[in-house]
Amino acid sequence: MSSRSSSSRSSARLGRSIALHLFLAPLALIWLFPLWMMVIFSTMPDRGIFSPSIELLPHGNFLDNVSNLQRDTNFIGAIGISVSVAVTYTFLSVLLTSMAGWALARYQFFGKGVVVAIILGTITLPYAVVLIPQFIMVARDFKLANTWVALIVPPLFNSLGVLFMRQSFSMMPGDLFDAARVEGVKEWRIFLFVALPLARPMLAALAIILFLASWNNYLWPLLINSKPGAMTAPVALGTLIGLTKVSWGGIMAGAVMLTVPMLVVFVLLQRHFVAGIAAGAIK
């Protein structure tokens, strides 16, 4: 009797799994189709992109489009700048948000609730509200336009990252840190060698989110950096859109070069991403 009931439960689970996949497969195809068409367009000449016929198979102009893109924008150099900025920004932002989250989670101080409320309030502000004042302060007052400092430092503070790490550190057992303090371990060593290793999944998820945010950032680098030789990759792609000519093949080739590596990295690291988000959401 028990074997029959377990068999029926297995059949029910199998049926639900098949139904779920039948429902999700078309949605996945709808999501993947624009990416596939981006790849197709990157292999076509400019005039072929606007062909009335629908092309679903790659052509042979990808290398030509990449060559034209490199000639017009020095795109390989722009990718190098984007990688350097994104890696530096991610490291510093993860460190700062972790320190802020640790302080808000584990220390009691006057005005702590006000600080948390202010951080929550900054999330509700549209970026356009702070964009112009931030530009005036960085470019006019500090005279940091066209520098790496201007690209990296202003976006470092991430409200969601602070709250995410605060939640992560709040979930950890306080007795563990109290035991370390009893043993005479200094606070900075507790943070670096006890708290951060325990928060590794959450740190990995936060690092992926921040890296992608910096990698895709377009508006701020466009405003603060006007030197052609110091443009990030998204800004370099934007220069292909002119008043009388648009290099669609080059834009699509550059978009593929920017998108595909990030998709590969995300697929390889999705286990850490999902684990970190799940761990930070459960208390």
From TrEMBL:
<dbReference type="InterPro" id="IPR000515">
    <property type="entry name" value="MetI-like"/>
</dbReference>
<feature type="transmembrane region" description="Helical">
    <location>
        <begin position="148"/>
        <end position="169"/>
    </location>
</feature>
<keyword id="KW-0812">Transmembrane</keyword>
<keyword id="KW-1133">Transmembrane helix</keyword>
<dbReference type="Pfam" id="PF00528">
    <property type="entry name" value="BPD_transp_1"/>
</dbReference>
<keyword id="KW-1003">Cell membrane</keyword>
<protein>
    <submittedName>
        <fullName>Binding-protein-dependent transport systems inner membrane component</fullName>
    </submittedName>
</protein>
<feature type="transmembrane region" description="Helical">
    <location>
        <begin position="190"/>
        <end position="213"/>
    </location>
</feature>
<feature type="domain" description="ABC transmembrane type-1">
    <location>
        <begin position="79"/>
        <end position="269"/>
    </location>
</feature>
<dbReference type="InterPro" id="IPR035906">
    <property type="entry name" value="MetI-like_sf"/>
</dbReference>
<comment type="similarity">
    <text>Belongs to the binding-protein-dependent transport system permease family.</text>
</comment>
<keyword id="KW-0472">Membrane</keyword>
<feature type="transmembrane region" description="Helical">
    <location>
        <begin position="75"/>
        <end position="102"/>
    </location>
</feature>
<feature type="transmembrane region" description="Helical">
    <location>
        <begin position="114"/>
        <end position="136"/>
    </location>
</feature>
<feature type="transmembrane region" description="Helical">
    <location>
        <begin position="20"/>
        <end position="41"/>
    </location>
</feature>
<feature type="transmembrane region" description="Helical">
    <location>
        <begin position="246"/>
        <end position="269"/>
    </location>
</feature>
<keyword id="KW-0813">Transport</keyword>
